[in-house]
Amino acid sequence: MASDSGWTDPLGGVPLLSARQVTPGERWILSAGFNVDAALTSTGRIDSELADLRRLSDAGARVAVLSHQGSHRDGTATALGHVAGHLSRRLDRQVRYVPENASDAAVRAAEALAPGEIAVFGNTRHHAGEERNDPELARRFALLGNAVAVGGFSKAHRAHASNTGVLRLLPGCAARSLEQEIRFLAPWARPPQGAFRAAVLGGRKPEKTLVGLVHAMHTCDLVVPGGVVLNTVLRARGHDLGASDLGSKPDACLEAVRGVLDAPAKARLHVPRTVWVAPVDEGRIVGEARPVAVVDGVSAGHAVVDFDLEPWAAESLAGAGSAVLAGTPSRYLDGQTRSADAVLSALSRTSGAALLLGGDTVAELPWPGPVSTGGGSALQLLATGTCAVLDALRDNARGARDDGPAPAPDDVMDGVST
Ligand SMILES: Nc1ncnc2c1ncn2[C@@H]1O[C@H](COP(=O)(O)OP(=O)(O)O)[C@@H](O)[C@H]1O
Ligand SMILES: O=C(OP(=O)(O)O)[C@H](O)COP(=O)(O)O
Q: Which CATH superfamily is domain 4-182+385-397 in?
């Protein structure tokens, strides 16, 4: 979605692991983004690191894998043993799980790795300091190796201890996963001249509004909000929303949407006439969904769970030359599949390229076409041509080390996890 002129090679000045020699015995940290559920519903975020892990291991490197999953704040961070198991199977070699990552025991375990051995260390989000980009936590993580390969494209927009923090302490480079995702996204940043461009932005995370909607309104021809993005648009237009989900940053998103609605835009914004609402209890759907005219508003105790895609928008989407979908448009896993099915059906008919972005989005929606493992990070890259991690890698290549205040934990989201 970046304007054509705004996209210079995002990898410019970024050292690449693919261009590095690896010698036996070297101690590497691979910073990954294994933010997947324990059932391994969608393993793309793990599989994207396989090639580098195999190469490092085959070259005799000793590899400590450091990954985030879930969040410390809401208690969703879990152990990562299932990831080590998956890697063992896919790499056809034993990948050990070391549940800690910042203790003396973790450092000893990393130092004891044999040449060619890979171990997955504990979830970085067991620590509050990960998302705060705490320099002391980064210092502990940095003891797990002598150099860091930064993968985990899905967290490339976050300046956290395990990716940008460690880059202030160790020489670093971009892992192949990061390199490949960024090269893969170029066609959506630079679609063919004159192509009709569309963005469908749903889900729950604020980036879909703060980055995705704000940027897409100026670069796309059609924007279809769903999920919390739609709820925020309806709120900005003064509709009653009952108990609808407004996400973790409702005020910032409302302000951003008001700014978008008040300013001239390139895109036509789809606002449905009919939404589907259901009774909810603490966010859980507890009764049948029914259609409601948007103008009638949503009553107390009820939430928007889906919407009807207007026929004109379905036609426009089907004719798109370039399209992205970031964030599930509706509560798909709760059986609210109308808008998502209509959007996916239209996108499957496009002559151009349609791309799905993000963890839950890719895991939840049936889509045989192209996908990216990054949701917020891909939107950030498409909107600005860079991400926090790429900037940190460039600084690292210039020799900048631990010589100033740590960067803000999260340049777009003010450090607030979503
Ligand atoms: N109207 C809605 N109200 C609440 N949640 C919604 C709504 N529409 C979609 N969602 C939820 O959004 C979730 C995906 O959002 P998000 O985490 O932002 O995606 P991703 O992980 O791909 O970035 C889905 O699990 C879906 O249930
Ligand atoms: O799932 C992720 O991002 P996404 O939902 O934007 O695809 C990444 O793992 C980043 O996780 P975070 O949004 O908790 O920082």
A: Phosphoglycerate kinase, N-terminal domain (3.40.50.1260)
